[in-house]
Amino acid sequence: MKTEEIYNAWKEQKSQIDVDKGFSDKVMSRINQYERQKRKPVFDGHRLIELISTRPLGKAAVVAAGAVIGFVRIAYVIYAFLGC
Amino acid sequence: MTHETEIIRRVLEGDIESFRLLLARYEKPVVRMIRNITYDKESCEDLAQDVFLTAYEKLASFDRARSSFSTWLFTIARNKSLNALKKKKPLSISEPPEKSNPHNPSDDMAEREFYDRLDKTLQTLPSRQRRAFILAEFEKLSYAEIAQIEGTRLGTIKSRINRAKMKLRTALKEFAGDIV
Asked: Do A4 and B106 touch (CB under 8 A)?
């Protein structure tokens, strides 16, 4: 076999490839996943409630936020009365 | 065989399953190109999956007036391969086999050695030459298409491919002890 033949045989060998039979399915599965994520709303109220109710830290954060808002409101009312 | 433009139109209109037709047509060339550029048999299919996912995500931006779908897809594959190569450690290229072995190319073992030698020479080529050679010789793309993928002039591509071919042939002849 001459070098030119070897060279051509090597090119032929490099051109051959076996792709995993499930390749297309894997790609399509990722595409479907991408589409599902794209359709998901940015704000999911149910998910937020679920997150808060299942985590003690979430509950504590909601209570703390409520307390801060209440305090600010009381302070604002007092300021409004005294300001007049 | 459905025309690519028609398939793309259907996919963009929401017929996701039509994308399978593009996959069937291009999975082998894309995987092969990535494997030959990155020399990573393990992760070339994962990278190819990323290529197709990106192609799907950006399909609306594909402009057939600017390039063919295959050129566009190979450009994505080329960019992803380059990024993967940057993240990876440099290829460790072992020394080519000693020249002192008596070569009988008709022998399978000897043939394997010749292939290894060509593989190693291909790996040592400057990456631009290597990519141009791979696209021309393994993917059978035209020089114009390669120039578009590489974002350079036609003459530059011709020169890169010729230099790559010359180096490979020289390496092979040296290894064979100038048997031709």
From this structure: no
Q: What is the pTM of this model?
A: 0.73
CATH classification number, B4-87, choose in 1.10.1740.10, 1.20.1560.10, 3.40.50.300, 2.60.120.260: 1.10.1740.10
Q: Are B149 and B75 in contact (CB under 8 A)?
A: yes
Task: Give the start-to-end residue ranges of the domains of chain B.
Answer: 4-87, 108-176
**CATH number for the domain whose boundaries are B108-176:** 1.10.10.10
Cross-chain Cβ contact B118/A26 below 8 Å: no
Q: State how far residue B30 is from chain A, nearest Cα, in angstroms.
A: 10
Label residue A83 exposed, middle or buried (CB < 10 Å: 0-12, 13-18, 19+).
exposed
pLDDT in tens, B46-84: 999 999 999 999 999 999 888 899 999 999 999 999 999
Judged by CB atoms closer than 8 Å, whether chains meet at B19 and A28 is answered as yes
Chain-chain contact of A11 with B23 (C-beta, under 8 angstroms): no
A14 to chain B: closest CA residue: B138
Enter the ipTM.
0.77
Closest-approach residue (CA) in chain B for A15: B138
